[in-house]
């Protein structure tokens, strides 16, 4: 049995300020794009979490030298054709982003590679990447269930014109990384706009990647000369989201979150919170690439919310928190069009419902979402919660516990290290003891 951690603590509110860890999506991309650029790429405020360290180890196994300079990571890139055949299978750990982006990167390389991962990653679908890549000429074999292990035999790739059936930034990014190595231009059309960090970063490194005004059509010109850059990684909105939620639902809170990425493909949680009536002040900061802001959050009474398919991509990783916010808000809230949640680190629709029910929340599972009947207070029926090894579920439950009047335990709390190793330390630093007020 995994570890258990006491997570409920009576608090008189959250106070103070936090500098959030670097954005996970941007940290992965800086390593991968740095590795295929010429010269050095310096990554500032890199996220040292388990997922990003899987990408770091993978590029080292592909022959790239990565060093540390103070707090910065330095990638000594070898250009588009400079990666080397790995001696052993590449271990993707728990990281879907590493796996899917690297499939696109390796599809056009002149060698064979095998990707493996942990038991959760081994259940996740990979044909959503290998199928579209095969239309470019890629040779990628998955296990019979369409999962890891995956064998990639590098091939010369052709430019394509392709419409993607799932709204997924990982799939889109894999195709963009493959398209850089193709023989002619590619056009990739998304179902709905998803996070565009790959496009933004590639432009910074010198690639010709254009996004049409529809925000759905991306054109990639092949064989660019990518030049190493300095990447200043802003704070991760997906990590900030736990504290945006906590400060909103715990009375008497007032906190400031510094330097958070506010790329609009990621700010669905801000939009949703503001729609529900949250008290959040956004102060934009000067930036030359990805936009960032300081966020001041104070407690607020909320109204219920309905989210549908179009809202989902910009809030995909924050939907566990929307379920929690809805659970604290009297009235019925709904999430639909979110079937992608079933393919995350866990089946998040099932796991959210299972864990919030332990707290006495009335919540109904739909094939593609959840219906939540919110209440001011809950009556827990089972004090032992479980992250199920899923970082975002573990952190959501720790925030939920701040509203509990009874002691709660969290099984497998160490899962938070996948995206936020210092989560419990940062949370504790904001909690004001009841007697301190
Ligand atoms: C990510 C894309 C999203 C997101 C994941 C990170 C990325 O996944 O859920 O946490 O960095 O591209 P999908 O592409 O599966 O939606």
From TrEMBL:
One of its GO terms (cellular component) is cytoplasm. Pathway: Metabolic intermediate biosynthesis; chorismate biosynthesis; chorismate from D-erythrose 4-phosphate and phosphoenolpyruvate: step 6/7. Its EC number is 2.5.1.19. 3-phosphoshikimate binds at residues 24-25, 29, 168, 170, 317, 344. It is an enzyme of class 2 (transferase). GO terms for molecular function: 3-phosphoshikimate 1-carboxyvinyltransferase activity. Residues 10-426 form the Enolpyruvate transferase domain. The keyword Amino-acid biosynthesis applies. Keywords: Amino-acid biosynthesis, Aromatic amino acid biosynthesis, Cytoplasm, Transferase. Belongs to the EPSP synthase family. HAMAP family: EPSP_synth (MF_00210). Catalyzes the transfer of the enolpyruvyl moiety of phosphoenolpyruvate (PEP) to the 5-hydroxyl of shikimate-3-phosphate (S3P) to produce enolpyruvyl shikimate-3-phosphate and inorganic phosphate. This is 3-phosphoshikimate 1-carboxyvinyltransferase.
